Every structure is written in C-alpha cells, then in structure tokens.
Amino acid sequence: QVQLVESGGGLVQPGGSLRLSCAASAGIFEIYAMGWYRQAPGNQRELVATITSGGGTMYAGSVKGRFTISRDNGANTVYLQMNSLRPEDTAVYYCNAQARYGTSPSGNYWGQGTQVTVSS
C-alpha cells in the first residue's frame, strides 16, 4: 500500500503564502503521477494541480498563476507553493498519488488531508 504524509497547512492572511508538502512511501510500487485536490465545506472535491513523473503539469484555472506544483521523484515528494492566497482558497487539501507495480492495475491513493484557512 502506498502511504502519503502531508504537511504545511495552516492559517494565513489573504495575500500570504503557504507551501504544502507530501511525502510518499511507495514500497514496490511505482508512482507515475501525483497531485493536489481540495474540498471546501458543501463543495465537491476538486482538482488543484497534478504532475507526472516526467514533469508535465496541469492546474485548475482558479489557481493558475498563483500556485506551483513541483516534484522530487527520487524522494517521491510533491510540493504545492501557494501564493497570493484568497479566502476562497480555504479548504482541506489532499495529496493524491497514482501508482502501479508491474502489470497490476494502477491504484489511487490519498493522504489524510491538511487544512488551509485564508482569513484576516
């Protein structure tokens, strides 16, 4: 089983910055994509950003230009640098990883979530 450990959430004022980290323990699995999702109360979980092992990235339109996702493949760690934070960014942020071993079907794995609150 792939295990994900998140850190970096907290309370920040509008316009501030936070950096989220997610360290994956993959064992025999190969992680080929990682990403960040978020879920605010009353809302569905939504994609924030993803990155592949090859470095390809994609972002939700609401965060493009403000957030940056990066990955350390050797350490199986993904980061989310969040700048110019807005109150509407307030949510629980979840780390996600897609992993496989050999020819077995790929699996979808989630961290426990970290709270990000943007408020003055």
Overview of the molecule:
- The structure is a single chain.
- It contains no helices and eleven strands.
- It is mainly β.
- The strands form two sheets. Strands 2, 4, 5, 6, 9, 10 and 11 form a seven-stranded mixed sheet that branches. Strands 1-3-8-7 form a four-stranded antiparallel sheet, with no helix packed on it.
- Strand 9 and strand 10 form a beta hairpin.
- The radius of gyration is 14 Å and the shape is elongated.
- The relative contact order is 0.32.
- The model has no long low-confidence stretch (mean pLDDT about 95).
Write the layout of secondary structure elements.
Elements lengths: L2 E5 L2 E3 L5 E8 L4 E10 L6 E7 L4 E3 L7 E6 L4 E6 L8 E10 L6 E4 L3 E5 L2
Parallel strand pairs: 2-11
Antiparallel strand pairs: 1-3, 3-8, 4-5, 4-9, 5-6, 7-8, 9-10, 9-11
Notable characteristics:
mainly beta; single chain; seven-stranded mixed sheet; 120 residues; 56% strand; four-stranded antiparallel sheet
Q: Strand content of the residues, in percent?
A: over 45%
Order of helices and strands: EEEEEEEEEEE
Helix content: under 10%
User: Quick one: overall form?
Assistant: elongated
Number of helices: 0
Sheet with the most strands, sense and barrel status: 7 strands, mixed
Instruction: Compute the CA-based radius of gyration.
Output: 14 Å
Tell me the distance between the termini: 40 Å
Rounded average pLDDT: 94
Give a count of the beta strands, DSSP E runs of length 2 or more: 11
Class derived from helix and strand content: mainly beta
Low-confidence spans: none
